[in-house]
Amino acid sequence: MHKNPKDVLEQFWGFSTFRGSQKKVIDAVLNKQDVLALMPTGGGKSLCFQVPAMAQDGLCIVVSPLIALIQDQISNLKQRGIKAMALTGGIPFNELVTLLDNGLYGGYKFIYLSPERLQQELVQDKIRQMNVNLIAIDEAHCISQWGHDFRPAYLECAKLRELLPGTPIIALTATASNEVAADIVDNLEFVEPLIVKDSFSRPNIGFKVTWCEDKHYRLKQYLTANDQSGIVYVRTRKMAQDLARFLNANACKASYFHGGIGKKEKQEKLKLWLNNQTQVMVATNAFGMGVDKPDVRTVIHFQIPDCLENYYQEAGRAGRDGSPAIALLLTNDFDVAQMKQQFLGALPNADFLKKIYNKLNNYFQISFGELSDKIYQFPFRDFVAAYSLNSFLAYNALRVLDQYSVIALSESFFKKTEIQFIASQSQIFEYLENNSGSAPIIQTILRTYGGIFDFETKIDPILIANKSGVSDRRVFDLLKKLQKDGIIEYTSQKTDLEITFLVPRDDDRTINVFAKKVEKHNQIKVDKVDQILKYIHTDSVCRSKQILNYFGEVKTEDCGICDVCKQKQASYSNDYQSIATSIASLLKQNSYTSRALVGLVKAEETQVLQTIQFMLEAGQLKINTKNEYEGI
User: Fold this and answer.
1) What pTM did the predictor assign?
2) Domain 5-197 in CATH: superfamily?
3) Which of 460, 497, 537 is nearest to 383 (CA)?
4) What is the per-residue pLDDT across 548-585, written as a single tens digit (0 to 9) for each?
């Protein structure tokens, strides 16, 4: 006997009505029908499996690719009094057995697991014994070789069909082309599924692409003029920290968020942002999944994402409440070149994968045919230096080996050892007098790193040890003591990376199994980079039309609020004349740079710059020796 889904929705989530196709999907699941749900970011996908799971006896198995997303969803469920657990990597065998037994007998409603867990016989055996009412495959595009985030381990999801015959499966994604959707249905062996595709259109979001040489200035200008909640996406952890520091120094309250910060710190940062005590969160791309903040008014991409799927998913975190919002991408020619280099110049081919795999085994002295069950501490920088490897290419190769389950990489990769001196210089001098044995190390740190009094600075303890003529352990022990004594703030970990070998060493043969798939997927990545570059360069077609067309959705009307539409509207109005009048009036009083004029004239930046160009060509203004504009 099923509970009424609407009653479940109201009891646990506090909503009185369903949105979009949620009710249709839930009814199908309760009728034991397989479902593919294609819904935009913010469309309420998780409720499509959480509500029906709560409406009937038994539990729901949820497969998800991201530990952060799993943790967020479990946290949200627990806050609602719903029992949920995670089976992710790094759990010791004995603990895994206990968790699986708890899943069998402990009254849990949700068990979240990574796709790699499905390869373990123990996990498969326990799942067979469980009373499972629903299987949910989240981020289902990962199962498709045509998807932007293909993970071969996701193909293991089909095993759930064998383990739990008769149990319905729901696959969910916010980003899937028609080709990817067909691949999902095929790989999960759906029979007469319900395929629901809500419109991906977000009519309240104005998509904009702004070309500018000084992106920092443009970002500051935009966020100080629009002081509501926002997200700024970047590609690296260092950029997240640097940009947050820049914004704080320019009257914009910002914080940063990435995989390298601890759980407690993440919770604190997130709480401040959710409560609007922090205006802007500068983050790497995983941020936002599972986070429900409806009043984000601005999402800014400070760097070009690797594909339209990721861009649209991240941009879609703006305006979930339906109120007007902006998705802005800041770029320039240097960005385009850098993006091509990063995403295309560092795609490892089969030969390079063989080289990395060989070096990896040699580095850890693993013999041919051996399968070690150890978890190795892996100093990545030392490995790269030892074999004179390109670090970015080597890292991508490691990710591919992880993707194809040859090795497992830990979540701790690239967490940094960082310190900041918080004592004054006089206090440090006094400390050195009383702790003379520490002087060589402290002085080496101060000579090696600038700005260490002003902000958290990444340091290399091994370099410090070598320069000071002491052991690595001595440096780490001193850093802990300095933190305890109130001289520095210090965050660190013992290694860059933990690595586990998942298959016996077989050198070239190990890579040959999936070499052709790697080459094929590399080409897909090349195509996806081309597609997003085409998007940012196309300024004659409505942005929303471009995006929806990419996802196979036909839109006949322009959105009217993107930069392209605004430009078209301006060209058929008197805006340029009024802008020219404003510029001429300003230049009668003083000379200004183009940047200054953009800030002073109340109009879109592109309109102001084009008007300046028209006025130059018409001889209505001139440029002086200071590169400032003057009236004539």
Assistant:
1) 0.67
2) P-loop containing nucleotide triphosphate hydrolases (3.40.50.300)
3) 497
4) 998 888 888 899 999 898 887 766 555 678 888 889 99
